[in-house]
Amino acid sequence: MSDNQTAISANHLTKRFGDFIAANDITFDVKQGEIFGFLGANGAGKTTAMRMLCGLSRPTSGTSTVAGFDVYKQTELIKKNIGYMSQKFSLYEDLTISENIRFFGGIYGLSNAQLKEKGEILIADLGLENQTKKLVGELPLGWKQKLSFSVAMLHHPKIVFLDEPTGGVDPVTRRQFWDLIYAAANSGTTIFVTTHYMDEAEYCNRISIMVDGKIEALDSPANLKKQFKTDSMDDVFYELARGAKRGE
Amino acid sequence: MTRTEIVNTTGQSMDSKMTSVGVRCKSLTKTYQKGGVKAVDHVSFEIEKGELFGLIGPDGAGKTSIFRMLTTLLLPDEGSAEVDGLDIVKDYKAIRSTVGYMPGRFSLYQDLTVEENLTFFATLFNTTIEANYDLIKDIYVQIEPFKTRRAGKLSGGMKQKLALCCALIHKPTVLFLDEPTTGVDVVSRKEFWEMLQRLKEQGITILVSTPYMDEATLCDRIALIQNGKILSIDSPANIITTFPEKLYAVKAADIYQLLKDIRAYETVKSCFAFGEYLHVTFKEQTIDTETDLHHYLVSKNHEALEIKKIDPTIEDCFIRLIS
Predict the structure, then answer these.
(1) At what angle do helices B156-168 and B114-124 cross, to 10 degrees?
(2) What is the mean pLDDT of residues A123-133?
(3) Do the beta carbons of residue A45 and residue A96 sit within 8 Å?
(4) What mean pLDDT is predicted for residues A64-93?
(5) Are residues B199 and B297 located together in one domain of the fold?
(6) Would you say A136 and A126 are in contact if contact means Cβ atoms under 8 Å apart?
(7) Confidence at residue A201, expressed as pLDDT on a 0 to 100 scale
(8) Nearest-CA residue of chain A relative to B161?
(9) A140 and B190: CB-CB below 8 Å?
(10) At residue B185, does pLDDT exceed 80?
(11) I need a labelling partner for B313 at 20 to 30 A (CA). Which of A37, A96, A231, B129 fits?
């Protein structure tokens, strides 16, 4: 696979905290334009791994490049070329929709002209023309999520990291969110997403499942179901995660 | 130990054996921000004693507000409710000593150990861990190895089990569990529902809320709720039979293109993604519906095409009710 078709590559990536090996010998590649699902039970090491890939945490050993940049030496370039959205933090609740777009656009390095143009397209795409002065805190959760995703995409990053982006919303809103993800992937953005919803795992081209710090499965949902002789991703996950020691 | 007789404020004996209703609410309403937000909109339902009843709906549907009213933490603006025959307004003190409550966020003492938390709650309810140990034993043995660990240092699944033990320690007649499985992984979720089944066998009335539609099928009956209003109340099996149209599952190699093509197909009524399949309903149903769809999709060059009729799930029903 040539380098400009690989969005993320990780080789024996490891993170230790003292004696505790949070992420253990992680190796995988993600192709440009792929929707890659990064699954695992709580405590399995997903967040640790994601932080290393986003340039937020220095690995203990191993190598990795994200959007072509090295995770040890080029963390600032990584941050400029990725988008990030999580359940725990997305947009500022006490700023308006417009203010959030201006703020994050500025952080992502967009010029005033670019900001104006892309901001208007974002607002039009989501149909928020009459609400730009509304505080984000007043929006229903589903709208916050869609807006947050769009803001993470403002600077057209090559890769977008989504950390449990659809928790808690109704089934229709959840699917509208995935429509946005599909459209982004279709136009070449690589999507790296973690989720607890196993049906969302099926929307991914490939998924990996982490257990106790290691990757214990890496394949397409269809292949994993064949491998575990089941027609449900729920069962695949359960089979792998049930023996985990780190739930304790 | 003699059983204390519960009386309501007018002195009448409310021996709860006389009624088979565990929880009843009539037109329960709650608004916030001076009437600006109607969080709970004239909600009515009845739960039988010993029933495992699910309140199924997304964030903001009103589940937590309903729970807070039923556990006497919040006063309703309109309507009334009874828990085990006791009125939530007039008999709130009695309710508080007889219900178990596990609120949405972990609310135990993070810096007390597992054992200290349990002892604390037992003492609060004037009992001891030993008195009702049988009830919590199955759950407690899983966290007992960690009994000297501070609650804040437990994993999500373990915290859940501890919270459940603390809610059961005084042998409540009614158990309220507000989103006990949110944010918890698949394995812990499965184990938790197995524990609930065992508790139900002991005759405890259980009201549990969840945004996970697949958990709905594990309840005796469910109420689907959205925007403060109840959409439907029945057993999961009955709700599924009320789905009005035939439902088809469709799959192809390029799911995203399939989604776009099906939505552009004139006779399609709805098309939603469900994992590797799309669930499709039609505006009109004829004998040719399936074959016509097949021809259309083949003409769009779809590979690995599969179309089949399926039974709807609770999620299909919920989506139908809110669309």
Answers:
(1) 20
(2) 89
(3) no
(4) 91
(5) no
(6) no
(7) 92
(8) A248
(9) no
(10) no
(11) A37
To the nearest whole percent, how much of chain B has pLDDT over 70?
Answer: 94
Confidence (pLDDT) at B16: 44
pLDDT-based confidence at B211, cuts 50/70/90?
confident
Share in percent of chain B as helix, strand, coil (round to 5): 35, 30, 35
- How high is the pLDDT of residue A138? 85
Average pLDDT over residues B248-253: 94
Cα separation, B86 vs B89, whole angstroms: 9
Chain B contact probe: residue of A34, A139, A170 with most B CBs at under 10 A = A170
Q: Which two tokens stand for residue A124?
A: 């039009």
CATH of residue B219's domain is 3.40.50.300
211-270 of B, contacting A, C-beta below 8 A? 211, 213-214, 226, 255-256, 259
H runs (alpha helix) in chain A? 46-53, 75-81, 97-107, 112-126, 141-152, 171-186, 198-201, 221-227, 233-241
Rounded-to-integer distance, Cα B156 and Cα A42, Å: 7
Give the chain A residue nearest B225 (alpha carbons). Answer: A170
Closest chain B C-alpha to A128 CA, distance in angstroms: 20
Tell me what ipTM this predicted complex has: 0.81
Of A167, A168, A241, the CB nearest to B187: A241
Q: What is the pTM of this model?
A: 0.82
**H/E run at residue B273:** strand B268-274
B93 domain residue, yes or no: yes
Chain A CB contacts of B275 under 8 Å are 198-199, 201-203, 221, 233
- Provide, as residue numbers in chain A, all residues whose Cβ is less than 8 Å from the Cβ of B114: none
Q: Residue A214: what pLDDT?
A: 94
Q: Which residues of chain A does B183 touch, with a Cβ-Cβ cutoff of 8 Å?
A: 42, 167, 196
d(CA B24, nearest CA chain A) in Å? 26
pLDDT tens digits, one per residue of B13-25: 444 445 688 999 9
| Domains of chain A with CATH codes | 3-241 (3.40.50.300)
Chain B contact for A238 (CB, 8 A cutoff):
yes
Higher pLDDT, A1 or B155: B155
Q: Is B276 on the interface with A (CB under 8 A)?
A: yes
Task: Identify the domain containing residue B211 by its residue range.
Answer: 20-240
φ/ψ of residue B198, rounded to 5: -65, -35
Residue B66's identity, in one-letter code, is I
Asked if B322 and A41 come within 8 Å (Cβ–Cβ), the reply is no
Angle A119-A120-A125 from CA coordinates, rounded to 5°? 100
Q: Are residues B219 and B252 in the same domain?
A: no
